[in-house]
Amino acid sequence: MAGEMTLRVITPEAIVLDVRTTSVRLPGVDGSIGILPHHAPMVAAIDTGLLRYRQGTSEGVLFVSNGFAQVRGDLVRVVCEAGEKPEEIDEQRAKESERRARERLASRGKVAAGDPVDILRAEMALRRALMRQQVLGYGSRVRGVR
Amino acid sequence: MASIRDLRTRIRSVGNIRQITRAMEMVSTTKLRRFQDRAVASRPYAQEIASLLSHLAGVPGGSMAKRPLFQAGTGQTSVLLLVTSDRGLCGAYNSNVFAKFEAWWKAHKAAGRSARLFVIGRKGYQYLTKRGLPVERYLSDPPLERIDYRLAKFTARTLAEAFLKGDVREVVLLYTAFESMARYVPTLLPLLPVQAVSAAVDPGAKGAGASAQSDVILEPDAATLLDKLEPRYLETRVYNALLEAITSEYASRRMSMKNATDAAGEMQGLLKGQYNRKRQESITKDLLDIVGGAEALR
User: Fold this and answer.
1) Which CATH superfamily is domain B27-254 in?
2) Are the beta carbons of B215 and A40 separated by less than 8 Å?
3) Cβ B149–A79 below 8 Å, yes or no?
């Protein structure tokens, strides 16, 4: 077998995850990045999205945003601003912020030249909200299979 | 001379004050612990970010030379962020910060430089306004009390923008570093331009990693990574400074409340002694009167 590696997810608030895994999938800024044991050393920027990791036959998922991944030896370190497990995500809040972000984007469209920074922020908020919900959906699916 | 009645009221009011200061001491203790835990929890993140930054600095294409945040500005202006508390009753916490500020200000003026002042905490804002100094930004929302990473992020961004826009020489943080439960020192922390990141990383790792660094895959590339990494690095430093400041505030408050509680207890004891003496005196006097009256009737 290919062996295992350690996945460590570190946020400003805590070390969210420190587990042995057989494969990790990260949301890189230029697309999804898959990492298997014995990967070459790498530093990658990470976007808002889903981090998926496999432990044997079971699979875990995590919401991550805005960070970096560093692979060295058999250690994968993900340093990001948010790292949330499905059970930690508040569905109501995610839905609410999705609605707010959509509203903001819609109203910006009408007023011809909105502040580009504001639009960017709203888009990012929307992305985060959608991704959180996706993590939730994914988490419940994984639990359903078990 | 205080009457018995006066003494009784004083004893009661001192007791009330003691209860309040004791409650505040306990509140401060729990809050202190909470903020301390968070400071500890944030350390791995800050270390990782710092090591990534120093790592990338050694990679071809990751040169710091052209990065604006690493260059000292040309102007004569400095930006200072003063971190104070919102509330009082925390001993010399704020005055220590102000003393440090005055020293800095004097040296700064002597060098013929001007400054733009940013403030966190109501006490600092009041102080500067009373002193007649213009405060450029008063960052009051959210309060430091409810600090989270987002606040640090916002603060760091505000400071970085100020640095990049005007002809600003440097950005300095003046906050209270938390050294131990009994030691909190007002500290000047140069935030920008970013100094060579060496303090956070042990030098041994650097030499060993130098040859391996060129083999590291960078995804997407060094410049993009640095673009994202720089703000994170600033945030971690600001976050840490803010956490330490509020931890120091609570440590200081706890200390002064403990002193107040002790002093109130002592005073209560003293007053009680006086009161008891007085009471005994009047009882003796009354008895003498009664005995005297009885003698006279005989």
Assistant:
1) ATP synthase, F1 complex, gamma subunit (3.40.1380.10)
2) yes
3) no
3-state secondary structure of A43: strand
Phi and psi at A13, nearest 5°, equal -90, -30
Other CB atoms within a 10 A radius of the CB of residue B18 amount to: 19
* Any B CB within 8 A of A97 CB: no
* Residues of chain B positioned with their CB less than 8 A from the CB of A66: 228
Pairing of strands A49-55, A75-84: unpaired
Residues (pLDDT < 70) of chain A are 1-2, 108-117, 139-146
* pTM (predicted TM-score): 0.81
The verdict on domain B4-18+258-291 having CATH code 1.10.150 is no
Of A11, A41, A45, the CB nearest to B228: A45
DSSP per position, B202-256: -HHHHHHHHHHHTT-EEES-HHHHHHHHHHHHHHHHHHHHHHHHHHHHHHHHHHH
Question: Of B48, B212, B220, which is closest to A41 when you measure between CB atoms?
Answer: B212
Chain B residues 151-170 with a CB less than 8 Å from chain A: 152-153
Mean pLDDT of chain B: 85
pLDDT, tens digit, for every residue of B101-115?
A: 999 999 888 888 888
Per the CB < 8 Å rule, is A12 touching B239?
Answer: yes
Annotated domain spans of chain B: 4-18+258-291, 27-254
